[in-house]
């Protein structure tokens, strides 16, 4: 309900502003005429019905307290079909309630935060919009959302059923207009994506190898990913200083992959595998990452899709290769009944990946996998990985070596999931101030949970609080899945 109140308050503010004008468009010609005259505070309402083979360009300069609005007459009843797309550029634009179905983009992007190579959107919001199976043929590539500019938000949208090549949502931190951007991707529902059978099926990508040395500063917070099986990378981090926090990954055949770029933060995420094949956690490449307060539940992926996969690197690696893992801290995470919790030196012997991780610390983690014999799979020696103060329990009991300690583990349920926690004191780190539930870590303990979680301070991202409430989601079983599965 909070999302609808937010949108309604903003929209009513516009309608009641003394100088604001509201235009209702019934066809694209009217829309184009209105765009020429809109100013800060104005609104364009698209009439209910099917809009087929339309290309919208929304350009305007709003103000912090006077957005320019493009909204559906009734959310969900403006159906954009055929060969259609939307582009926007300018300042303080707000788009809401549009549904893209029964068609595909005539270009390379469905919704794009720019109208030309030099005209970008800033401080603008895409709210409660839908792109559902809006697919080109499988042998054609496109992206559904392309974000340029700075301080843009994509919130409470639904994106599901992408079956052709291309990333669902891409952030492009390519130059000074779009670096250090502070974009927010919040409370979106990323619906099922079938196996593509090749590279190019990411759900979110932030950057590219060519610009991986640049800072993006994008925040991916509180989103729900359901069976996003396009390829091994659900989220592909390819730029610097990004935050991936408080998201839920339900039965996704892949991992959050820190592919290129440094200094990512991955915290507060729930990786729910439910024993499904190829469900993964976090794969680590590059340096300076902080990975903490994550919960890995019944994951069944191995090697690249292990609960934690720390990769070997290529000597003098090119930008699109595999840079060394350095100065990474993996702390206060919890694993429950995962088949392949940790893998070190992944990729050794392939593509000349022979450079071992350096200065990497695994601290204060709770690994409770009583059905697993081997908690750590070594693909290469791991002198550069240091383990300290971890509780590690496998099928044989508690490990008492390799940085593991003996401590009591308690079981409970939290937010509908089984969980484990301990009262073993943690070695404190300054940035681990809260646990996965947002509870303050007083006398800090190991694992993601400070205690059994009686009073969560953070709302778990679910199908109920992500995406538009008014849109009926098609279940994953209704989407055909090719059998081939790539190995990247």
Brief write-up:
The protein has 488 residues and is mostly beta strands.
What this model shows, in words?
With 488 residues, the protein is mainly beta. The protein has a single domain, classed as Single-stranded right-handed beta-helix, Pectin lyase-like (Pectate Lyase C-like, 3 Solenoid). 5% of the residues lie in helices and 34% in strands. It has two helices and 43 strands. It has a 14-stranded parallel sheet, with helices on both faces. It has a 14-stranded mixed sheet with strand order 3-6-9-13-16-19-22-25-28-31-34-37-40-41, with no helix packed on it. Strands 4, 7, 10, 11, 14, 17, 20, 23, 26, 29, 32, 35 and 38 form a 13-stranded parallel sheet that branches. α2 links the parallel β1 and β2 (43-46).
Features:
488 residues; mainly beta; Pectate Lyase C-like; elongated; disordered N terminus; disordered C terminus
Q: Helices, strands, pairings?
A:
Layout lengths: L1 H15 L5 E4 L2 H8 L7 E4 L2 E4 L2 E7 L6 E5 L5 E6 L1 E7 L1 E4 L1 E7 L4 E4 L8 E2 L2 E3 L2 E3 L10 E5 L5 E3 L2 E3 L8 E3 L12 E3 L2 E2 L13 E4 L11 E3 L2 E3 L6 E6 L4 E3 L2 E3 L4 E6 L4 E3 L2 E3 L9 E3 L5 E3 L2 E3 L10 E4 L17 E3 L2 E3 L5 E5 L13 E4 L2 E3 L7 E3 L6 E4 L2 E4 L2 E2 L11 E5 L2 E5 L67
Parallel strand pairs: 1-2, 2-5, 3-6, 4-7, 5-8, 6-9, 7-10, 7-11, 8-12, 9-13, 10-14, 12-15, 13-16, 14-17, 15-18, 16-19, 17-20, 18-21, 19-22, 20-23, 21-24, 22-25, 23-26, 24-27, 25-28, 26-29, 27-30, 28-31, 29-32, 30-33, 31-34, 32-35, 33-36, 34-37, 35-38, 36-39, 37-40
Antiparallel strand pairs: 40-41, 42-43
